[in-house]
Structure formats: C-alpha cells, structure tokens
Amino acid sequence: MTQPKPRPTIAEMVRYQPNLRAPEADRIIRLSANEGAFGPSPKALQALNNQSGLLHWYPDEEPIELAEKLGEKYDLDPKKMIFGCGSDELIMAICQAYLDPGDEAVHTEYGFIMYPMSTKVAGGCPIAATDNNFRVDIDSILDRISSRTRIVFLANPNNPTGSYLSRTEVARLHSKLPSDVLFVIDAAYSEFVVRNDYSSGAELVDAAENVIMLRTFSKLYALAGLRLGWGYAKPHIIDALHVVKQPFGANRAAVAAAIAALDDQQFVDKAVEHNEKWRTWTASKFEKLGLLCLPSITNFLMVKFPNEKGKTANDAGSFLTSRGILTRGMSGYGAPDYLRLSIGTEDEMKIVLKNVTEFLEGA
Ligand SMILES: Cc1ncc(COP(=O)(O)O)c(C=O)c1O
Questions:
Q1: Nearest-5° angle of CA 309, CA 311, CA 315?
Q2: Residue 2 resides in a domain
Q3: Is the pLDDT of residue 261 over 90?
Q4: CA distance 83 to 60
Q5: What is the rounded average pLDDT of the residues 83-102?
Q6: What is the pLDDT of residue 132?
Q7: Fewer CB within 10 Å: C terminus or N terminus of the chain?
C-alpha cells in the first residue's frame, strides 16, 4: 500500500535531539540545554499563577505591555518587536519568509543547529562558513556570500562554542554584506554577557534596513518551559514575519511571566554574578584536570576530552548520564571530542567536578 511521503529533504533529515531524557537516578542534574541555573524569578511565578483563571482566552495578538517593558528596559522601540513561541519559531519564520527553493542561508561551522535545519525545512540551502579555532571567522562568512544568499545567521555569543564577536567586528561583517541579505543576529545569551566591547546588535537594527536581532526568555530569565522569544527589526521585516508565523505563538502565561521577570533586576544581577563566578570556577577546575575549555562568555562551557579509549567525550557523556548528570555531546555539531555543559547551581557544579574527576581516574 502506498503511503503519504514527506518532501525528500524532510525524509532525509534527523529531528532535533536535545538530550533532555532523564536517566534513572536519585537526583537529575540537567546541564544539557543551557537553561537557567536556579529557575525563574519568584515574581514571574506569581504572575504565571495569576493567569490560571484566564486560560480559556487567547492571548493578545500583540503583547503590547511586554513590548513597552522591553522598550524601557533595553532602550528599544516597542513598535519594532515581534514575539514567538521561543526564538526557534522566529528562526523558522525568517527562513520561510526570506528563502525561495534553492536560496542560500549562511551559518557558521559551529553555530546553532536550528539555522541549517530551519533553512532546509523552508526549502533553502544551508551554507557553512568555517570557524577559526572555534571562533566565528568574518572573512569565511563573506567568502560564502553568493548571488543566491538571502540570509546570514550569526549567534552572538555563539552556541555551542561560547565565543563572541565584538561590536566592531559585527559592524565590519554587516558593512560588507549586500544590502538585500538579511543579517540575523541571534543574541540569545546576551543577558549573561559582561564585556564592554560586546553589543547585542540593537544599534545595527536601528541604523540599517537588513538586520534582525533575536532574543529569548529561555536563558537568563529561565523561562524555557514557557517558550517565549522576541525579535527586533525594522517594520518591513516584522510585517513579513507576521504573515508566516503563527498568530498566537506568544502565549498568555509566558507573556505575563516575562513582564514580571523584567521587573526583577535583583534576580538578573544574581543570575549574572552566579554565572560569572561558577563558569570561571568550573573552567579552572577542569583545566587543572587537563581538560581544555573553550573561552566562554555565556552560561555554558564546551570542554575537550582526550581522544583515548575509555576517556573520550562520548565515554564521559555516558558516564555522567549514568550518574544522573545530563550534558550535551557535540558530535551533531561535528566536534565529537567535546561535551557542552551549562552552568548550574554551586552544588551541581561541585557534583559535576567530583564525577568528572572520578571518570578521569577510571572509577
Ligand atoms: C543561539 C540560540 N538561539 C536560539 C535558541 C532557542 O531559544 P528559544 O528557547 O527561545 O527557542 C537557542 C537555544 O538553545 C540558542 O542557543
């Protein structure tokens, strides 16, 4: 009997694999998805509870109060914002709105995997620009631009490497892009960044016609389970995305929690301070164990394991999983010698160190 068949591109693709399955263990330490270390702000939880009597109502088509709050907090124009079911939804909408079959979208070699995946789903052709020692290489991106290029994706800071381009470097890259290429600056981890030479890219949105900045409430604000991302771009881009994205992607519970989370500056300061302290601590302890950590300004580290039987990143990942600690293998990103792990609580990082030490000692 014949069966309905998906498009050949879809039939060939493997679904996104986040490694969030809980193994059997007394305690699960989940460091595989770059989530917030200690859950959301209590203010966000309260606001979420307050929505429980309203769940039979669709959310507002445009969460204007949230846009205004973001505008105040980050000095942005609320009219240039768009919201979605995670920034993942906006990445897909960008591909659907800007790619005709065969059009190209450039992404970086060790960049966020949803860029090539969404490009393919939309019928486009993902083109990888090689990195330079796990850092985005601007000239390599520029070398990949052709007459078919419609989109350039840049995660800044980058997932999974944790590295970043400075404000000046991003401006240089943008200045060399053709004006009909949409430049996507995905600043999902920007709220964690403590660097004077970094910018999330908002000023480029205001200055140019071909830039969109993406942000999310999944990381620093620790609301990943509610799925809320946002974009900042000129109205002609926002209008195009509204046509393709689902109308109610930003749900009412997420919007209410996000508004409250933005008011809790104490939570934000605590999360940033905690992250700086424990990322530095973890990297230095791992390096003492002989494990190289790529320099990171985010809430995760990409760690290299020896290419030695029993000691590989894959072995380490399995060992840690058996102890209830979830990390992310990097084979899917083409870096099988590495594991990526997020910065959790103090207690969790100490347990991770103990277990990695035991793994290396052959426990
Ligand atoms: C660079 C980057 N962009 C976007 C996302 C997706 O975020 P969201 O939860 O808002 O869909 C992630 C999630 O890991 C990410 O690392």
A1: 95
A2: no
A3: yes
A4: 11
A5: 97
A6: 96
A7: N
Region 194-199: mean pLDDT is 97
* Residue 240 lies inside a defined structural domain of this protein: yes
Query: Each residue of 46-69: pLDDT tens digit?
Result: 999 999 999 999 999 889 999 999
Choose which residue among 30, 189, 218 to substitute to test ligand 1 binding: the one with the highest number of ligand atoms within 8 A of its C-beta.
218
Q: Do the Cβ atoms of 212 and 245 come closer than 8 Å?
A: no
Q: How many domains does the chain have?
A: 2
DSSP state, residue 141:
H
Distance between Cα 228 and ligand 1 center (Å): 10
C-alpha 258 to ligand 1 mean position (Å): 16
- Domain extent for 217: 42-263
Could you give the 3-state DSSP secondary structure of residue 334?
A: coil
CATH number of the domain that residue 271 is part of: 3.90.1150.10
Q: Is residue 173 packed enough to be buried (19+ CB in 10 Å), middle (13-18) or exposed (0-12)?
A: buried
Cα of 3 from ligand 1 centre, angstroms: 34
Q: What percent of the chain has pLDDT over 70?
A: 99
Mean pLDDT, to the nearest integer, of 88-114? 97
Looking at the fold, whether 257 and 211 belong to one and the same domain comes out as yes
Contact 291, 274 (CB under 8 A): no
Claim to verify: residue 199 and residue 346 sit in the same structural domain: no
Pocket test for ligand 1, best of 85, 117, 216, 298 (most atoms within 8 A of CB): 216
Q: How far is the CA of 97 from the centre of ligand 1 (A)?
A: 19
Angle ∠(161,162,165) on CA atoms, nearest 5:
105
Q: Is 124 in a helix, a strand, or coil?
A: coil
Is the pTM higher than 0.90? yes
Amino acid at 310: G
Q: Report the atom number in ligand 1 closest to the C-alpha of 89.
A: 11
Residues in the chain: 363
Query: Does residue 111 sit within a domain?
Result: yes
Which residues' Cβ are closer than 6 Å to ligand 1?
34, 86-88, 112, 155, 159, 186, 188, 216, 218, 224, 229
Which atom of ligand 1 lies nearest, measured to the CA of 160? Answer: 16
Q: Is residue 1 part of a domain?
A: no
Residues sharing a CB contact under 8 Å with residue 280, sequence separation 6 or more, in sequence order: none
Domain finish residue from 211, 239, 263: 263
Asked whether residue 107 falls in the same domain as residue 224, the answer is yes
